[in-house]
């Protein structure tokens, strides 16, 4: 596996086409739509320049897509029964960026580029624009013909225990290393007070704050999120560099400054805690793990979940509707 990942890293420099996860390959559109990646990148960059917070939105959009029905663009479908309207997805952002890119691509290369691939490429571009690492995205996904609101209820949750998080990731072929690495996407972005305020005042109905929260950080969070305040108020998931994609998120978790309970819990379990400590720079692992090198590997692996290729699925004309 490490050899495969090493080859993929070489592709970042050479640009050669190789097989990726699930029969995908880099450079899939080199003949059918040579400017596809350029157009998607320019579209993401134009929006990012106006609103840097969109980067986290696009990254999360791809993640939520892949965890339901695989990476097939099913998150983009509108309609009451679609996964887009499931409770865990109601705060998702970036749909208009994907639609904008799709409109341009349909005008240039009708029926060539899938919405699922636009999502995967836009997520990579969002990370790069946030000063994060780049990687060659294997493409060739086709769009799914099913979008299920009911299935989206099983997405990872901010209140999940490590055991539950592990089970949800394992069900998608992802291990502990992938779990911790992908959660590092919280290096950018924000969350609502609503999703973690219970940790500040009445954790496990004890009337006290979550004891894993750094006591010096607790008053700061309580000031931002009063007990009976506005639950929609936004808080950075990485208090030190919310617009920069880096390893400071793991340093915050190490120091008890994680915002979401599910993030902070990663430190308290032996296997996941060691990876957190490694990324935070507290220990030197056998591989000397570096977040900026490991994140692209995990993203390539995740973006291959249950993909549809060849004659499967379809290439949508509009990302929000089935053909």
Oligomer: single chain
Residue-averaged pLDDT:
91
> Treating each run of at least 4 consecutive H or I residues as one helix, how many helices?
13
Portion of residues in helices? 40-55%
Order of helices and strands: HHHHHHHEHHEHHHH
Q: What global shape is seen?
A: globular
Strand order of the largest sheet: 1-2
Poorly predicted ranges: 1-20
Please give the number of β-strands. Answer: 2
What portion of residues belong to β-strands? under 5%
Separation of termini?
Answer: 37 Å
Structural class call reads: mainly alpha
Major sheet attributes: 2 strands, antiparallel
* Rg over CA atoms: 19 Å
Function: Removal of H(2)O(2), oxidation of toxic reductants, biosynthesis and degradation of lignin, suberization, auxin catabolism, response to environmental stresses such as wounding, pathogen attack and oxidative stress.
EC number: 1.11.1.7
Protein name: Peroxidase
Family: Belongs to the peroxidase family. Classical plant (class III) peroxidase subfamily. Belongs to the peroxidase family. Ascorbate peroxidase subfamily.
Description of the molecule:
Substrate binds at residue 156. Belongs to the peroxidase family. Classical plant (class III) peroxidase subfamily. Belongs to the peroxidase family. Ascorbate peroxidase subfamily. The record marks 60 as: Transition state stabilizer. The active site is at 64 (proton acceptor). Keywords: Calcium, Disulfide bond, Heme, Hydrogen peroxide, Iron, Metal-binding, Oxidoreductase, Peroxidase, Secreted, Signal. With 323 residues, the chain is mostly helical. It is 42% helix and 2% strand. The chain contains 13 helices and 2 strands. The protein has helices at residues 2-14, 36-50, 54-66, 95-108, 115-129, 162-170, 176-183, 198-201, 218-224, 248-254, 261-268, 270-280, 291-302; strands at residues 190-192, 234-236. A two-stranded antiparallel sheet has the order 1-2. Helix 7 packs across helix 13 (291-302). The longest helix has 15 residues, at 36-50. The protein is globular.
């Amino acid at each position: 596996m490490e050899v495969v990942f090493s080859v993929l890293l070489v592709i970042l420099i050479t640009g050669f086409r190789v097989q990726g996860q699930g029969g995908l390959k880099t450079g899939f559109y080199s003949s059918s739509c040579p400017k596809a990646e350029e157009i998607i990148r320019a579209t993401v960059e134009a929006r990012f320049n106006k609103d840097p917070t969109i980067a986290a939105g696009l990254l999360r959009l791809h993640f939520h897509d892949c965890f339901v029905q695989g990476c097939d663009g099913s998150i983009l479908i509108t309609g009451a029964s679609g996964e887009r309207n499931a409770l865990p997805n109601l705060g998702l952002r970036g749909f208009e960026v994907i639609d904008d890119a799709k409109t341009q691509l349909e005008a240039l290369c009708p029926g060539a580029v899938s919405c699922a691939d636009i999502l995967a490429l836009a997520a990579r571009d969002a990370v790069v624009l946030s000063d994060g690492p780049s990687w060659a995205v294997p493409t060739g996904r086709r769009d799914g013909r099913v979008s299920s609101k009911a299935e989206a209820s099983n997405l990872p949750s901010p209140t999940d225990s490590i055991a539950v998080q592990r089970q949800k990731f394992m069900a998608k072929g992802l291990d502990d290393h992938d779990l911790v690495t992908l959660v590092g996407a919280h290096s950018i972005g924000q969350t609502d007070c609503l999703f973690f305020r219970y940790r500040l005042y009445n954790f496990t109905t004890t009337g006290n704050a979550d004891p894993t929260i750094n006591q010096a950080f607790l008053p700061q969070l309580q000031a931002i999120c009063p007990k009976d305040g506005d639950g929609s108020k936004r808080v950075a998931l990485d208090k030190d560099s919310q617009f920069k994609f880096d390893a400071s998120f793991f340093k915050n978790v190490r120091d008890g400054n994680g915002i979401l309970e599910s993030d902070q819990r990663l430190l308290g379990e032996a296997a996941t805690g060691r990876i957190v400590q490694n990324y935070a720079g507290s220990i030197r692992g056998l591989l000397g793990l570096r977040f900026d090198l490991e994140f692209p590997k995990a993203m390539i692996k995740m973006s291959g979940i249950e993909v549809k290729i060849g004659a499967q699925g379809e290439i949508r004309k509009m990302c929000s509707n089935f053909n």
